[in-house]
Amino acid sequence: MGMENSKWNVPVVLLPSAQIAKERMIFDARDAAQVLISEWPWMRGRHYDNALRACALVLGGFIEPDAART
């Protein structure tokens, strides 16, 4: 599995909130990891760690892209 086919079948939509100024469409694990690292400082814990780990596994080619979306 290569990075050339890393887009998710269905994007994740982040709706505006106190932390996110405008709607964001997340299309792949690289985008998701960037948001988690740069724009998601308010809730960290087990779920955050699992999400970041799943993104890293996709980026490393260890799991399918859609596995990080769940």
What does this structure look like?
The chain is of the alpha+beta class and 70 residues long. It has one domain (3-68). Helix content is 34%, strand content 19%. The chain contains two helices and two strands. The chain has helices spanning 29-38, 46-59, and strands at 7-14, 24-28. It has a two-stranded antiparallel sheet. Helix 1 packs antiparallel against helix 2. The model has no long low-confidence stretch (mean pLDDT 85).
Question: Summed up, what is this model?
Answer:
The chain has 70 residues and is α+β, with helices and mostly antiparallel strands.
Characteristic terms for this protein:
alpha+beta, two-stranded antiparallel ribbon, globular
Number of strands: 2
Structural class: alpha+beta
Are there runs of 5+ residues with pLDDT below 50, and where?
none
User: Nearest-angstrom radius of gyration?
Assistant: 12 Å
Strand content: 15-25%
Could you estimate the helical fraction of the residues in percent? 25-40%
Strand order of the largest sheet: 1-2
Number of helices: 2
Biggest β-sheet: count, sense, barrel?
Answer: 2 strands, antiparallel
Average residue pLDDT:
85
Net shape:
globular
